[in-house]
Amino acid sequence: MKHSMKRIMIVLTILLIVSTSFIYAITPRSYYGNTSKYYKWDSSSIKCYVDSTITSTFSTSVCNSIKAGLTAWNNSDAPAVTFTTSYSNWDVLAEAGDYGSSGWDALCTTSCSSLSNNIYIEDYAIIDLNTYYLDNYLSVNNLWRAICCHEMGHAHGLAHNNNEDSIMNEYTTGYYNYLGSSPHFTAPQYADFLGVNAIY
Q: Global pTM?
């Protein structure tokens, strides 16, 4: 009887650990820290404007890597990203600038207005790439792609995920270790697709 009870407790503990990891993977990013409210796009496609100065300041290959990262989620249930050349007609703006030693190499800021069933609907998102840190890695196109994929994950509503192989790891070196060996993720991983598909 003692052995049976012990075996049941071990199985229950394992199930609890596995289910907790799964729940974390599919939990959408909270809106301003309120875990009962989330945000998402209310559209099947969104338009992204990549600041034209990125090509002239850096290179076409950097710009193409940024675009590849932004569209990396197009195989998920999240709205498909398309590109626009009109600055007055975008849902997502990707821009680069020197923001100094802020501690972040990229940042996604979202604006939401309407609330429906505890879900905020996004109006727009702005992805800022901090060249203070990225200038030294201009030739590492996959790094630009990975960072933009990560920030687009936030724009789609995902939080950080440090528990699994994920492009949404809180730290850049957690998903793209440009200072050493793997992991080298430049696209959403299995846990990321679970998360974004749970939102949409």
A: 0.81
